[in-house]
Design a protein that fits this description.
heterodimer; A: alpha/beta; Rossmann fold; 4-stranded antiparallel beta sheet; 37% helix; globular; B: 82% helix
Amino acid sequence: MTIHVENIAKRFPLPGGRALTVIGDISFTMENGDFVAVLGESGCGKSTLLNLVAGLLPLSAGRIEVNGSRIAGPHPSRAMLFQQPSLLPWLNVEENIVFGCKLRGEEEDLATRAAQLIEIMGLSGSEKVKPHELSLGMAQRVCLARALIGHPDILLLDEPFASLDTINRTHLQEELIEFWMVEKFSAILVTHDIDEAILMGTRIVLLGDRPCRIIQTYEVNLNYPRDMSSRSFFLLRAAIIKKLRESFDAGQEKKETP
Amino acid sequence: MADSVLIMLHRFLYGMAPHGRYMLMKILYGLLGAGLFFIAWVFIGYAIFARPGYEQFSGFLPLPTLKAMAALMVDPHFWQGIHASLRRVVVGITIAFVIGLPMGLMIGFYKKLQIVTHTPIQFLRMISPLSWMPIALLVFHSFEWAIYFLITMATVWPIILNTSHGVSQVNPHWINMARNQGARDYQLLLRIIMPASIPYILASLRLALGVAWIVLVPAEFLGISSGLGYIINDARDTMEYDRLMAIIIAIGVVGFILDGGIEMVQRAFSWNPA
């Protein structure tokens, strides 16, 4: 599973015939099993990039190819985990998890697979619970199970842990990494949390500037589970912060001298 | 004596589980409201119709009315009237629902269609349904169908507008999620938009029922020979004012029961927002 993002741009129309360019010109390539963490400040266009790869938004320019063929619209092989748990309130936990598979008619072993994921995600006993009774962390686990049950080739993660408390976030990060190491899917994680990016990514793509572009790419050659107190973790973190600050200062200068 | 009753009531209420206590309080306060309303009716009734010169209208007083109500309970004409009126409301709303639900879903789903239909719907909605009566009598040769038409004209607009509003309120995250999971357009409509709009659809039915029940009685004044509106007209002509007042109360009671019934359905089918 190779993902090839080539010179993509995204503009949103504004009133008065003008356009807001959110993404200027971005290119990158991912190989099978890569875990790319896209890091950038809030509102810089990270989520837009993810929505473009998901096919939920049309491109303004450029192309995105998966295994050599250009994507046209959303596809279940590129499953997305949204920032807010998007569970259907009239379905219970189990029904929410199998929702996509039922849509697509993938009924084979569905009950068994659902039971396995419910077990792994620590949702046992909550199968028949309705979403409004779940905590945020539980709800996001259900969403993760729903995204994973169809064995996606690519998992797209849009700051899925941002609204969780530290303990839940740490657990879910670890569980997701364990799952990824077994299932060997590719993943793109969008985040504004530097630690999260270093904990999870095999590669970190630093976004910045307006319209947004790639400032820097880091390969992270650390073994999982990663140790936040290790020297290499600390050095990488410092380097990223330095780079972000430089980019931020450059942006400020550009604003002041138009 | 009164004190000890109050203390016993207090002990009884606060000895119960919170939910049971809440339900009991609701019932007690509901009965209190009904009781106050009854007392107000008695006072106002006597203040107006017990004055000298109003002897011939004494039928409107509460006591004769209650007697007439007892008589109605065993009067087959009354039950036939209720049956005829309910049938008209049910047929009229069913026609309006069959037309209005798909229209509301489509208008809510396609923004352009909403803009196109805005003017005609807002225009037609503001016309009192009863003003269609002369035209309805010309077009439909039976009174029965003219009344179905009037009720449909009265109820189709709230159904269309509420349903389309419900569709436009569907959480866009659910739609993105379903598209991401591979949903086609018809699956979006059936699996996301329809279930998400059910509370709005039921609310539209409840509104429609209220409107239909209000429009029905004047519609039944206009030449038909059955139904509650007809009985009111008939009672006025024969100067049976006790019977007239009893029917007025019966109209209120039936409307109340219908509304309560649909409210129960609403509760059973509404999902809790996540």
